[in-house]
């Protein structure tokens, strides 16, 4: 891809939203590090804004036919950076066990490397439903961990005290199973694509 093509891709609205999401990462990390109840709520707010841009950039790209190679690279990268940076900061505060983050980070590095290898060989391996569920659980779980404290939540006639830390931690633990399962599925897809390519040679 030429430099001019990359430049044109970057200045389209979906990719600008993705870059904005990346720019929010240090803001979220600083607020997590501060650790006060107000900072936690602000961290939740900016993380939520970043999550909304993730949906919005994809919607605009499809609606306006602005899907680009640069966007296909930047969008998942922004998601991984946002989630992993937030989790690493939360480990420092003792809100998430380090071993969970190590497993999740190892999975992301392995699958990203495998995806890059598949792409270099001209193989396209679609993301499965497990991977999408993993991402959704991590996003919602992180929101719970960012809010962290116990708040009274009112649902019309019902009100209850919700421990957002416990809720978020359990969602992250559940996402770990989907993370491992989707990684196994991706390895199977890679092996199948490799076998098909070998048999066609």
UniProtKB/TrEMBL annotation:
Annotated GO MF terms: CDP-diacylglycerol-glycerol-3-phosphate 3-phosphatidyltransferase activity
TM stretches of this protein: 12-33, 40-61, 81-105, 139-158, 164-187
Name the record gives this protein: CDP-diacylglycerol--glycerol-3-phosphate 3-phosphatidyltransferase
Family, as annotated: Belongs to the CDP-alcohol phosphatidyltransferase class-I family.
GO biological process terms on file: glycerophospholipid biosynthetic process
Membrane topology qualifier: Multi-pass membrane protein
UniProt cross-references to Gene3D superfamilies, sorted A to Z: 1.20.120.1760
EC annotation from Swiss-Prot or TrEMBL: 2.7.8.5
Broad class of enzyme this protein falls into: transferase
Species per Swiss-Prot/TrEMBL record: Microvenator marinus
InterPro entries, per database record: CDP-alcohol_PTase-I (IPR050324), CDP-OH_P_trans (IPR000462), CDP-OH_PTrfase_TM_dom (IPR043130), CDP_ALCOHOL_P_TRANSF_CS (IPR048254), Phosphatidylglycerol_P_synth (IPR004570)
Cellular localisation: Membrane
GO cellular component, one term: membrane
Lineage of the species this protein comes from: Bacteria, Deltaproteobacteria, Bradymonadales, Microvenatoraceae, Microvenator
Chief localization: membrane
